[in-house]
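hiii, so i know i said id send this last week but things got crazy w the move. better late than never?? heres the sequnce for the chain we talked about at the cafe, plus the structure i predicted for it. fair warning i was half asleep when i ran it
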Amino acid sequence: MAEWKYCTIGDLCDTISDTYKRNDNEVILINTSDVLDGEVLNHTPVANVNLKGQFKKTFKRDDILYSEIRPANKRFAFIDFDNTSKYIASTKLMVLRPRENVVLPRFLYAILKSKAVIDELQHLAETRSGTFPQITFSSELSPMEIMLPDLTTQKQIVSILSAIEGKIRLNTAINDNLEQQAQAIFKAWFVDFLPFGGVMPDDWRMGKLKEILSLKKNSIKAGTDIELPYLPIEKIPMNTFAVKEFCPNSEAKSSLITFNENDIIIGAMRVYFHRVIIAPCSGITRTTCFVLVPYDKNYLAYSLLLCNQNKSIDFAQRTSKGSTMPYAIWEGGLGDMDIIIPNYETITKFNNIIVPMLEKIKYSYFENQRLSALRDTLLPKLINGEIDVSAVKI
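okay and structure toks below
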């Protein structure tokens, strides 16, 4: 029978403030925006010159990076890779190091990302005075009490959770592969013209993006159509078609517009963040986004891949309005971008090849939601001993 005991988070880990002291020519800077829901998003080296003073902390494999700001935003990551010597974390990220032979790193990470802990930390953050909701290790995180099982049970729980998260990661990898295939086919057909002898066919023509796409502005008041999920611009992922999560309808407050399944959504505010997705279902977003619909459904795949091109995002950025908070515009902006308009036969063939890929990408959202819901349901019961781990089969 598993042995469980009460302890605090502070009993399980230390907060590390080791300062970067090397002189590498290049380093990788990790800010709060560079970690999200378990992953480090940035692995791009930059020159080790004139670095901002906030970048000081080093970390290593099996450490946990955890943002002090707005815990509900899930700005945390588990370090599952080696060769971390050139990484420097912001002082706004706690570096948590699990204590050996007390807690498994993955088990501690499971606790820290559980809904109960995040909700409690967010509540505590909001009760502190300050410019924005913030926590510290000593005041909020360290004193939190939990139930801790023996190491054998921890290993069993980690194995169960890892099996679920492995399936989620596999779906994500499949999506990435499908997107790369779609991008490669688009480039071969409409940039390099490989199926057409390397030159643009005579019956293709030049036109404007707004000739094949319509900007949709279906306004909606907050509190109506409450069954529709809410997709604010910050939840639209960067550089991928695949939506990962929505927000509750209750969070939709103002400047709202609706979208339908298969609509193309582009983050228009700070368009350079490259937020371009295909909607997996109907929902609500804000006017900080473009909701685009092809005039002909056979133009869907071509339109989506075209909007996702770097040169399209660059054009939208160049024609944006506003300096502090630039917004892309449609009329006189992205809608007036010069494009190639292939003949209808080619567009239809391309659509027939790419749409099944897009359908798989869309379906993975619902599959990952089911897996995430299963994980989130099991997690508190597993870490509180409510479920016998030996009885769980994944």
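btw The chain has two domains: 4-149, 171-366. thought thatd interest u
miss u guys!!
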